[in-house]
Amino acid sequence: MIRKIFLLFTIIISNTIFLYSQSERVKNTPYVDQRRIHFGFLLGIHSQDLAFSHSGFKTDDGEQWYAEIPEFSPGFTVGLLADYAFTERLNLRITPNMCFGNKNVYFKEHVSNQWISQDIKSNYVNVPILIKYSAKRVNNYRPYLVGGFTPSFDVSKRKDTPIVLNRFDLLAEVGVGVDIYLPYFKLIPELRFGLGLLDLLKKNRPDLHEKEDLKYTNSISNIKSRLVSLVFYFE
């Protein structure tokens, strides 16, 4: 999934640069970047992932379980944009959004190869706070780098499952994109990578009816999130 997102982004950027380099050098919306504050909205796709650190825990029966996400499922993102220009090339961007997606976790026993799966549906309210540094505009496109932090809160409900994740997370994000100047607005594809900074594993599990199921939680020492996003801004 990550490779497909990266390939799609590369194709979009390459085709855009080629088309505009071959077109007439007429600048669309030439004064749009002179606004100090402007707004927009975003649509996108993303892939959620989890990085597991295992504890090496063994049950009384000698079972040792490991967790992984063998494949990724695409999710959908929708949100708003507020942009403040510090200088001609440096902007502060706040992009509150909702991410709808899921993560299919597989637990496998080390010796017997028994396995179970858990589908973790996650609906995140994200508030990315990003700094955008842009290159010089060339014709009708302008590449940039972006980075910052994203507080995230999961509003989905779940309990009595093999593992439960804490609702709050904080991600460090970096990405690349390009402003595409169209006659009436800017279209901005952006590829961004997020790395979770907090341990998401909920270790206190009074909700479990079968205490034997604690072996899945005990087998993991910590869980951190990963996120790959392909976002299209309309400004």
Q: Which characteristics define this entry?
A:
eleven-stranded antiparallel sheet; 235 residues; Porin; mainly beta; 11% helix; 53% strand
Explain the overall architecture.
There is one protein chain. The chain is mostly beta strands and 235 residues long. It has one domain (2-19, 40-180, 190-234): Porin, CATH 2.40.160. It has helices at 2-22, 214-218; strands at 37-54, 65-68, 74-85, 90-94, 97-109, 115-126, 129-134, 141-154, 168-181, 186-196, 220-234. The mean pLDDT is 87.
Low-confidence stretches: none
Number of H/I helices? 2
Mean pLDDT, to the nearest integer, reads: 87
Largest sheet: 11 strands, antiparallel
Return the CATH topology: Porin
> What is the CA-based Rg, rounded?
21 Å
General form = elongated
Can you give me a brief rundown of this structure?
The protein contains 2 helices and 11 strands; from the N terminus they run αββββββββββαβ. With 235 residues, the protein is mainly beta.
Describe how the helices and strands are arranged:
Elements: H1 2-22, E1 37-54, E2 65-68, E3 74-85, E4 90-94, E5 97-109, E6 115-126, E7 129-134, E8 141-154, E9 168-181, E10 186-196, H2 214-218, E11 220-234
Antiparallel strand pairs: 1-3, 1-11, 2-5, 3-4, 3-5, 4-7, 5-6, 6-8, 7-8, 8-9, 9-10, 10-11
